[in-house]
Amino acid sequence: MKIFDSHFHIIDPQFPLQPNQGFIPEPYLVNNYKSETSEHDIAGGAVVSGSFQGFDTSSLIEFLKILGNGFYGVANISSELGDDELVKLDQAGVRAVRFNLKRGGSAERDEMVNLSNRLFDKFGWHAELYVSSKELISLSSMLSEIPEYSIDHLGLEKFGLEHLFKCVEQGAKVKATGFGRVDFDPKEVMKTIHSINTTALMFGTDLPSTRARERYSKAHLDLIKDTFDSSDLDRILYRNALGFYTKVNR
User: Fold this and answer.
1) Preceding peptide of 208 cis, ω within 30°
2) Total tally of structural domains belonging to the chain
3) Domain residue limits at 196
4) Tens digits of per-residue pLDDT, 192-246?
5) Is the pTM of the predicted complex or chain greater than 0.70?
Protein backbone atom coordinates (compact mmCIF):
# COMPACT_ATOMS: atom_id res chain seq x y z
CA MET A 1 0.00 0.00 0.00
CA LYS A 2 1.33 3.42 -1.00
CA ILE A 3 2.47 5.76 1.76
CA PHE A 4 2.83 9.51 1.89
CA ASP A 5 5.13 10.15 4.84
CA SER A 6 3.69 13.38 6.21
CA HIS A 7 6.44 14.06 8.75
CA PHE A 8 10.16 13.35 8.81
CA HIS A 9 13.39 15.29 9.25
CA ILE A 10 16.67 15.35 7.37
CA ILE A 11 19.70 16.55 9.36
CA ASP A 12 22.89 17.45 7.54
CA PRO A 13 25.66 19.16 9.55
CA GLN A 14 26.95 20.77 6.33
CA PHE A 15 24.13 23.23 6.88
CA PRO A 16 23.72 25.46 9.95
CA LEU A 17 22.49 23.73 13.09
CA GLN A 18 21.75 25.58 16.31
CA PRO A 19 21.37 24.17 19.81
CA ASN A 20 17.78 23.99 21.01
CA GLN A 21 17.53 23.64 24.78
CA GLY A 22 21.14 22.47 24.58
CA PHE A 23 20.36 19.75 22.03
CA ILE A 24 21.96 19.23 18.62
CA PRO A 25 20.88 16.05 16.79
CA GLU A 26 23.04 13.46 15.12
CA PRO A 27 23.22 13.57 11.31
CA TYR A 28 20.39 11.89 9.44
CA LEU A 29 20.86 12.19 5.69
CA VAL A 30 18.53 11.45 2.79
CA ASN A 31 20.30 8.13 2.25
CA ASN A 32 19.69 7.21 5.90
CA TYR A 33 16.00 7.97 5.49
CA LYS A 34 15.69 5.98 2.27
CA SER A 35 17.50 3.02 3.80
CA GLU A 36 15.37 3.00 6.95
CA THR A 37 12.11 3.17 4.95
CA SER A 38 13.16 0.79 2.17
CA GLU A 39 10.53 -1.77 3.17
CA HIS A 40 7.78 0.86 2.99
CA ASP A 41 6.12 1.83 -0.29
CA ILE A 42 6.97 5.53 0.11
CA ALA A 43 5.38 7.46 -2.77
CA GLY A 44 6.08 10.94 -1.40
CA GLY A 45 6.22 12.90 1.79
CA ALA A 46 6.90 16.09 3.72
CA VAL A 47 10.33 16.91 5.12
CA VAL A 48 9.89 19.17 8.14
CA SER A 49 12.31 21.80 9.43
CA GLY A 50 13.28 21.14 13.04
CA SER A 51 13.83 23.62 15.86
CA PHE A 52 17.56 22.94 15.58
CA GLN A 53 17.57 24.26 12.00
CA GLY A 54 16.21 27.67 12.92
CA PHE A 55 15.39 29.94 10.00
CA ASP A 56 17.90 28.35 7.63
CA THR A 57 16.02 27.41 4.44
CA SER A 58 19.00 26.53 2.25
CA SER A 59 19.10 23.03 3.73
CA LEU A 60 15.41 22.40 3.07
CA ILE A 61 15.77 23.47 -0.56
CA GLU A 62 18.70 21.08 -0.99
CA PHE A 63 16.90 18.18 0.69
CA LEU A 64 13.89 18.60 -1.58
CA LYS A 65 16.14 18.63 -4.63
CA ILE A 66 17.69 15.31 -3.55
CA LEU A 67 14.39 13.69 -2.57
CA GLY A 68 12.80 14.59 -5.90
CA ASN A 69 9.24 14.43 -7.19
CA GLY A 70 6.48 13.80 -4.68
CA PHE A 71 8.25 15.38 -1.72
CA TYR A 72 7.34 18.73 -0.18
CA GLY A 73 8.75 21.00 2.49
CA VAL A 74 7.57 22.45 5.80
CA ALA A 75 9.69 25.47 6.70
CA ASN A 76 10.51 27.53 9.74
CA ILE A 77 10.14 31.02 8.30
CA SER A 78 10.81 34.43 9.77
CA SER A 79 7.87 36.79 9.48
CA GLU A 80 10.31 39.24 7.94
CA LEU A 81 11.27 36.98 5.03
CA GLY A 82 10.72 38.81 1.74
CA ASP A 83 8.50 37.75 -1.13
CA ASP A 84 11.43 36.93 -3.43
CA GLU A 85 12.76 34.37 -0.96
CA LEU A 86 9.29 32.97 -0.40
CA VAL A 87 8.85 32.48 -4.15
CA LYS A 88 12.10 30.48 -4.21
CA LEU A 89 10.81 28.27 -1.40
CA ASP A 90 7.49 27.75 -3.15
CA GLN A 91 9.24 26.84 -6.39
CA ALA A 92 11.44 24.38 -4.48
CA GLY A 93 8.36 22.58 -3.15
CA VAL A 94 7.71 24.15 0.24
CA ARG A 95 4.01 23.98 1.02
CA ALA A 96 3.70 24.87 4.69
CA VAL A 97 5.02 27.04 7.49
CA ARG A 98 5.76 25.46 10.86
CA PHE A 99 5.12 27.01 14.24
CA ASN A 100 7.09 25.15 16.88
CA LEU A 101 5.24 26.27 19.98
CA LYS A 102 6.74 23.51 22.11
CA ARG A 103 10.46 24.00 21.47
CA GLY A 104 10.80 27.35 19.68
CA GLY A 105 13.07 27.94 16.69
CA SER A 106 10.22 29.25 14.57
CA ALA A 107 8.10 32.39 14.23
CA GLU A 108 6.45 33.42 17.48
CA ARG A 109 2.90 32.68 18.59
CA ASP A 110 1.77 36.30 18.12
CA GLU A 111 2.95 36.19 14.49
CA MET A 112 1.03 33.03 13.68
CA VAL A 113 -2.21 34.47 12.32
CA ASN A 114 -0.71 37.17 10.11
CA LEU A 115 2.06 34.96 8.72
CA SER A 116 -0.28 32.03 8.09
CA ASN A 117 -2.74 34.19 6.21
CA ARG A 118 -0.02 35.93 4.23
CA LEU A 119 1.40 32.60 3.06
CA PHE A 120 -2.00 31.08 2.38
CA ASP A 121 -3.12 34.08 0.33
CA LYS A 122 0.09 34.27 -1.73
CA PHE A 123 0.92 30.59 -2.18
CA GLY A 124 -1.84 28.43 -0.73
CA TRP A 125 0.45 27.17 2.04
CA HIS A 126 -1.02 25.77 5.23
CA ALA A 127 0.33 26.04 8.78
CA GLU A 128 1.67 23.20 10.94
CA LEU A 129 1.73 23.36 14.72
CA TYR A 130 4.02 21.47 17.06
CA VAL A 131 1.96 22.04 20.17
CA SER A 132 0.58 20.13 23.14
CA SER A 133 -3.16 19.56 23.10
CA LYS A 134 -3.47 21.25 26.50
CA GLU A 135 -2.38 24.53 24.87
CA LEU A 136 -5.08 24.46 22.19
CA ILE A 137 -7.77 26.09 24.31
CA SER A 138 -5.63 29.20 24.75
CA LEU A 139 -5.03 29.26 20.99
CA SER A 140 -8.64 28.76 19.92
CA SER A 141 -9.29 32.35 18.82
CA MET A 142 -6.06 32.43 16.81
CA LEU A 143 -6.73 29.06 15.20
CA SER A 144 -10.16 30.20 14.08
CA GLU A 145 -8.40 32.85 11.96
CA ILE A 146 -5.97 30.45 10.25
CA PRO A 147 -7.28 29.11 6.92
CA GLU A 148 -5.72 25.62 7.05
CA TYR A 149 -3.54 23.93 9.65
CA SER A 150 -2.38 20.61 11.03
CA ILE A 151 -1.27 19.50 14.49
CA ASP A 152 1.77 17.28 14.98
CA HIS A 153 2.02 13.98 16.86
CA LEU A 154 -1.65 13.51 17.84
CA GLY A 155 -1.38 16.52 20.15
CA LEU A 156 1.20 14.85 22.40
CA GLU A 157 -0.72 14.88 25.69
CA LYS A 158 -3.87 13.21 26.98
CA PHE A 159 -4.77 16.30 28.98
CA GLY A 160 -6.53 18.55 26.50
CA LEU A 161 -7.47 15.95 23.87
CA GLU A 162 -11.03 17.26 23.89
CA HIS A 163 -9.62 20.51 22.47
CA LEU A 164 -7.79 18.55 19.77
CA PHE A 165 -11.03 16.81 18.82
CA LYS A 166 -12.76 20.19 18.64
CA CYS A 167 -10.08 21.40 16.24
CA VAL A 168 -10.72 18.34 14.06
CA GLU A 169 -14.44 19.15 14.04
CA GLN A 170 -13.48 22.59 12.74
CA GLY A 171 -11.32 21.21 9.92
CA ALA A 172 -7.85 20.70 11.38
CA LYS A 173 -5.64 17.86 10.16
CA VAL A 174 -3.72 15.74 12.66
CA LYS A 175 -0.51 13.84 12.07
CA ALA A 176 -0.55 10.22 13.19
CA THR A 177 3.12 10.46 14.08
CA GLY A 178 5.45 10.38 17.05
CA PHE A 179 3.87 7.51 18.97
CA GLY A 180 7.01 7.51 21.10
CA ARG A 181 6.21 11.07 22.19
CA VAL A 182 2.61 10.73 23.41
CA ASP A 183 1.37 9.88 26.91
CA PHE A 184 -1.72 7.93 25.81
CA ASP A 185 -2.80 4.95 23.69
CA PRO A 186 -2.62 6.29 20.12
CA LYS A 187 -5.05 3.68 18.83
CA GLU A 188 -8.15 5.05 20.55
CA VAL A 189 -7.23 8.66 19.83
CA MET A 190 -6.76 7.90 16.13
CA LYS A 191 -10.11 6.12 16.01
CA THR A 192 -11.83 9.13 17.56
CA ILE A 193 -10.18 11.58 15.16
CA HIS A 194 -11.08 9.42 12.16
CA SER A 195 -14.69 9.11 13.34
CA ILE A 196 -14.97 12.89 13.47
CA ASN A 197 -13.43 13.52 10.05
CA THR A 198 -12.15 10.80 7.73
CA THR A 199 -9.88 13.28 5.94
CA ALA A 200 -8.07 14.42 9.10
CA LEU A 201 -5.49 11.74 9.97
CA MET A 202 -2.15 11.70 8.13
CA PHE A 203 0.48 9.04 8.81
CA GLY A 204 4.15 9.94 9.16
CA THR A 205 7.27 8.18 10.40
CA ASP A 206 8.68 11.10 12.43
CA LEU A 207 12.14 9.78 11.55
CA PRO A 208 14.71 10.05 13.01
CA SER A 209 12.51 10.62 16.09
CA THR A 210 14.84 13.15 17.68
CA ARG A 211 14.32 13.41 21.45
CA ALA A 212 11.40 10.94 21.39
CA ARG A 213 11.22 8.37 24.17
CA GLU A 214 10.80 5.68 21.54
CA ARG A 215 12.06 5.74 17.95
CA TYR A 216 9.71 5.07 15.07
CA SER A 217 9.52 1.41 14.04
CA LYS A 218 7.39 -0.66 11.70
CA ALA A 219 5.35 -1.64 14.76
CA HIS A 220 3.86 1.87 14.70
CA LEU A 221 2.73 1.40 11.12
CA ASP A 222 1.42 -2.07 11.95
CA LEU A 223 -0.67 -0.58 14.78
CA ILE A 224 -2.44 1.65 12.24
CA LYS A 225 -2.90 -1.24 9.82
CA ASP A 226 -4.41 -3.35 12.60
CA THR A 227 -6.81 -0.56 13.61
CA PHE A 228 -8.37 0.47 10.29
CA ASP A 229 -9.78 -1.29 7.24
CA SER A 230 -8.25 -1.01 3.77
CA SER A 231 -10.33 1.93 2.55
CA ASP A 232 -9.54 3.89 5.70
CA LEU A 233 -5.87 2.97 5.42
CA ASP A 234 -5.69 4.38 1.90
CA ARG A 235 -6.83 7.71 3.32
CA ILE A 236 -4.67 7.69 6.45
CA LEU A 237 -1.48 6.39 4.86
CA TYR A 238 -1.71 8.21 1.54
CA ARG A 239 -4.62 10.23 0.21
CA ASN A 240 -5.28 12.57 3.15
CA ALA A 241 -1.73 13.89 3.24
CA LEU A 242 -1.38 13.91 -0.54
CA GLY A 243 -4.44 16.12 -0.76
CA PHE A 244 -3.24 18.41 2.01
CA TYR A 245 0.14 19.05 0.39
CA THR A 246 -0.93 19.12 -3.26
CA LYS A 247 -4.55 20.28 -3.05
CA VAL A 248 -5.70 17.32 -5.17
CA ASN A 249 -8.15 14.51 -4.38
CA ARG A 250 -9.52 16.50 -1.48
Assistant:
1) yes
2) 1
3) 3-246
4) 999 999 999 999 999 999 988 999 999 999 999 999 999 899 999 999 999 999 9
5) yes
